[in-house]
Automatic annotation (TrEMBL):
Keywords carried by this UniProt record: ATP-binding, Membrane, Nucleotide-binding, Transmembrane, Transmembrane helix
Domain ABC transmembrane type-1: 24-302
Transmembrane segments: 20-40, 60-81, 136-155, 161-179, 238-261, 267-288
Biological classification of the source: Bacteria, Pseudomonadati, Pseudomonadota, Gammaproteobacteria, Alteromonadales
Residue ranges of domain ABC transporter in the record: 333-568
Membrane topology recorded in Swiss-Prot or TrEMBL: Multi-pass membrane protein
Protein name per UniProt: ATP-binding cassette, subfamily B, bacterial
Domain of life: Bacteria
Main location: membrane
Pfam families: ABC_membrane, ABC_tran
Length: 583
């Protein structure tokens, strides 16, 4: 879709109400017509003055009323355009937000964090600027320009031909620059979005920057991005300045021509003083909108760039989330012939078959990168399998309503993400209603959080900072665990949930987890020996398939890969070491 079509599509998508548009049409017309009356009334007044030495009170009153009426209507017009622009911006922002949060995970995997936010905030602002600010000048400019041309034609058609020629010349001169400006504006906005994305990512990983002593690298990288932006912005300004100068040249040339020609006519008595002044006023009605033309062209080009970027998002197909609503009963989750890769040329799972027994704990082990977290993502319906399927409660996961599925699945991720809010707000995030206080208390106890919360002066109302930065890794994990338990999930997915805990906390949380797992289908990406040893079943994943499965003791005997993995991951050499480590 080309850029103008993109912009038209967006404007139509957010079309204001018919009432607002017709009010705007009437007000614009009236305001511009009144604007045209000002020079005519001035002419009548001046002609009377030069004829009779004085003008009448009626004439003065009419001119004053026309001036005041024109000013009021211009104000109303600006207000209406502001309303239309802001309503469009609100609607576009809501549409964009609603669309973005429903996009497939692959979109977020391949997009910088700050970019969608940039489109929601900045690109919509650019469209709003075109509608609210520039279109007022443009609309009223077009009406007064056309009206003035017509009146001038009757006042002096020869001079009007000169004016028309000037307009055509300036338009032809501007056109190629304007096309180049569109391309530059899009490039500039893309680069700015990428800068914002990079800065957002950088500041949220400021500790990494310091630890890696990456200040110098980041300063250089930032400088080179800023230099790139500067050069593109300067090219844009060069074009704007060129367009502006060309327009000014044509305007000034026309004014000089008309003034010279008009003055000679007044001197020779062919033209009255009133007609000459009216001519100059009409001329201003033509040249002022033309002067603003470069601003309108720039805003229009910027808006076209923004519209392309907004449409890119709005036309990206959504992930299918609707489906059968089901209640997860006491049935196993079965993975059948599942093949999946983030990219088509690199499969993570290749006809994987396995079963997660209902009410039991299954540990998944495998080398780093084997696909444990990926399997969790698939189990929550974040990605679609390339072939094969996951069967949940007898239904294909693809056909299940994802919200109904996820509301019954508790997931504790490796990095336990938290929001910049209070502990309470983090715990109840996403809950449709306030949780029962007893249930909340129990989840807190089960996640071994109670003691920690009791030590805080404001307890659950404590702010955790950006991404939970004021908490330890273990505290963040326990909040994430409590949040998962609060859902009373039928299925519990724990992605190395005990990775950041000290020995004491780990022992306590293991106990809590044992309780939480009771009667629940629990799947753990296991990196802790005790988890592996306690599991009802262990799935050993290698090369995208289940290499072997069983209980720990059986696997130690039957799978060389498993026993090697265990000794590598936990630094244990013999069965005796393992028994000692688990005791
Ligand atoms: N969003 C993604 N886009 C593309 N590739 C990904 C994505 N997430 C993971 N991968 C790749 O998929 C593979 C499996 O990753 P995954 O995180 O599932 O492994 P894992 O077994 O959980 O590893 P670990 O034990 O180290 O956490 C890896 O090769 C990884 O690079």
């Amino acid at each position: 879709m080309n850029s103008t079509a993109s912009l038209i599509r967006l404007v139509r998508r957010t079309r204001p109400s018919g009432l607002l548009l017709s009010t705007l049409f009437v007000v614009t017309l009236m305001s511009s017509l009144l604007g045209l009356l000002v020079p005519l009334q001035t002419k009548a007044l001046l002609d009377k003055l030069s004829e009779a030495g004085a003008f009448t009170n009626e004439q003065a009153l009419v001119l004053l009323s026309v001036l005041i009426g024109s000013a009021i209507l211009a104000g109303v017009m600006t207000y209406i355009m502001g309303k239309i622009g802001n309503e469009q911006k609100r609607k576009l922002r809501a549409d964009l937000f609603n669309h973005i949060i429903a996009l497939p995970m692959s979109f977020f995997d391949n997009t910088r964090a700050g970019e969608p936010a940039n489109r929601i905030v900045k690109d919509t602002e650019i469209i709003e600027n075109l509608v609210s600010e520039q279109s007022v000048s443009f609309l009223s400019g077009v009406v007064s320009l056309l009206g003035s041309f017509i009146i001038l034609w009757f006042l002096d058609w020869q001079m009007t031909m000169v004016m028309l020629g000037a307009v055509m010349v300036s338009f032809m001169l501007i056109l190629p620059f304007s096309m180049r400006l569109t391309m530059l504006s899009k490039h500039l906005q893309d680069t700015e979005a990428s800068l914002l994305g990079r800065l957002t990512e950088l500041f949220s990983n400021i500790r990494l920057l310091r630890t890696q002593c990456a200040q110098e690298f980041e300063i250089n990288h930032n400088n080179s991005q800023l230099n790139g932006l500067y050069h593109t912005a300067m090219k844009e300004h060069f074009l704007l300045a060129t367009i502006g100068s060309l327009v000014n040249l044509v305007i000034m040339g026309s004014i000089v021509l008309v003034l010279g020609f008009g003055a000679s006519r007044v001197a020779s008595g062919v033209m009255t003083l009133g007609a000459f002044v009216a001519f100059i006023m009409f001329l201003l009605n033509i040249v002022l909108p033309m002067g603003q033309l470069s601003m309108v062209v720039a805003a229009f080009n910027k808006a076209k760039g923004a519209a392309i970027r907004i449409n890119e998002i709005l036309t990206t197909p959504l992930q299918i989330e609707e489906g059968v609503k089901l209640s997860l009963t006491n049935e196993s989750i079965i993975v059948r012939e599942l093949s999946f890769g983030y990219r088509d040329d690199k499969m993570i799972f290749d006809t994987l078959n396995c079963r997660f027994m209902a009410g039991k704990t299954t540990a998944i082990v495998g080398a780093s990168g084997a696909g444990k977290s990926t399997l969790f993502a698939l189990l929550q319906g974040f990605y679609q399998a390339k072939s094969g399927c996951i069967e949940v409660a007898g239904s294909n996961l693809n056909e299940i309503d994802k919200e109904s599925l996820r509301s019954q699945v508790g997931y504790v991720a490796q990095d336990s993400p938290l929001l910049c809010a209070t502990i309470y707000e983090n715990l109840v995030y996403g809950a449709k209603q306030q949780p029962d206080p007893e249930r909340l208390r129990q989840a807190i106890i089960d996640a071994d959080l109670k003691h920690f919360i009791d030590t805080l002066p404001v307890g659950l109302d404590t702010q955790v900072g950006e991404r939970g930065v004021t908490l330890s890794g273990g505290q963040r994990q326990r909040i994430a665990l409590a949040r998962a338990l609060l859902k009373e999930p039928a299925v519990l997915l724990l992605d190395e949930a005990t990775a950041n805990l000290d020995a004491h906390t780990e022992a306590a949380i293991q106990l809590a987890l044992h309780k939480a797992q009771a009667g629940r289908t629990t799947i753990i990406a296991a990196h802790r020996l005790s988890t592996v040893v306690d599991a009802d079943n262990i799935l050993v994943i290698q090369n995208g398939k289940v290499e072997s499965q069983g209980k720990h003791d059986e696997l130690m005997q039957s799978s060389e890969f498993y026993s090697q993995l265990i000794s590598k991951q936990f630094g244990l050499k013999t069965n005796r070491d393992i028994t000692v480590a688990c005791s």
